[in-house]
Amino acid sequence: MNLNGASQNQGVLAWNGTAATPIDIRRHNHFSFTFRTTADLAADASFKVQAAPPSDVDPCLPGTFVDVPETLVCHDYGPPNPTTGFLIPSGTKAGAICTAALPCRPDAFVQLVATGGATVQAVAVLSGPR
Amino acid sequence: MLMNTAVQHHGIVAWRAITAVNLNPPIDLRRHNGFSFTFNVMDDIDVDAVFEFAAAPPDPANMCAPLLPQYKVQEVLTCTASWGAVPMGDTFVTIPAGTKAGSVCTATLPCKPDAFVQVEPASGDTGKVEVVVTLSGPR
After folding, report:
1. Residues of chain B neighbouring A103 (CB-CB closer than 8 A)
2. For residue B48, what pLDDT is reported?
3. Residue of B5, B62, B111 to mutate, interface with A, max A Cβ within 10 Å
4. What per-residue string of b and e applies to B11-26 under the rule 16 or more CB within 10 Å gives b?
5. Interface contact B34-A5, CB threshold 8 A
6. Nearest-5° Cα angle at B131, B37 to A86
7. How far is A85 from chain B (nearest CA, A)?
8. A76, A95, A130, B92: which is deepest, by most CB within 10 A?
9. A16 and B1 in contact by Cβ < 8 A?
């Protein structure tokens, strides 16, 4: 029988090709991203991750977003970059899928800032409802 | 440490109403063990938003594409159905009127209907809902 895996792994559109949606990650144990190309990429598509605390006015909304600095993991060397990002390289074919995650939870909200991502969709996968 | 759960649960946009074109690509189910849907309500629902599902086998001329025309997925009863219940025909998912913006609903089908499945708007405020399919367990 086919199980409802989405009940534990909800998908929320984080980047639709033109605009980003802030993602509230407070209610789940994990978050990660699925990137899917909708056309062949003629140039790199890069995504920077920003994070924000809840707004003082409305805790359901994000406050001011700032870049998330890179967090090094065991197989990394050197000083961390001041920003965290993902790159979908030029030449990637339409329909390709790439997944990525951050090593840590940066804050209550995250959002993607894209450069050249007009033919890429990004979905945040929110796993393990609290 | 945060885990990349998307490796095992790919999220793909399955329905999004936009101005120029309704975006609902056929979803290839053959490479994953499970599939299910997240319905994200983007605006308050005034009229029941009803979705239905179409399915298709691969096109013999291009195995990566569905054979057209697709057909409507029929309801499959599960153990929770009442004794003597009869399938109602086409399968629907309804986001009821009164549902508030920001609500999240998940759903799935009991069985894999075919190689491809597609989310289709049936009636109501479907334009206020974004649907993501979660493809779980890569084969």
Report:
1. 1-2
2. 98
3. B5
4. bbbbbbbeeeeebbbb
5. yes
6. 95
7. 15
8. B92
9. no
Q: Looking at the predicted complex, does its ipTM rise above 0.95?
A: no
Within 10 angstroms of residue A107's Cβ, the number of other Cβ atoms is 17
Helix/strand/coil (H, E, C) string of A78-115?
CCCCCCCEEEECCCCCCCCEEEECCCCCCCCEEEEEEE
Taking a C-beta distance cutoff of 8 angstroms, is the pair A116, A42 a contact? no
- Name residue, tokens 């390709």: A96
Distance CA A129, CA A102 (A): 18
| CB contact set of B106 (below 8 Å; sequence gap of 6+) | A4, A6, A7, A10, B36, B37, B38, B39
- Predicted confidence (pLDDT) per residue in B23-69, tens digit: 899 999 999 999 999 999 999 999 999 999 999 999 999 999 999 99
Average confidence (pLDDT) over A29-42:
96
Q: Tell me what the pLDDT averaged over chain B comes to.
A: 94
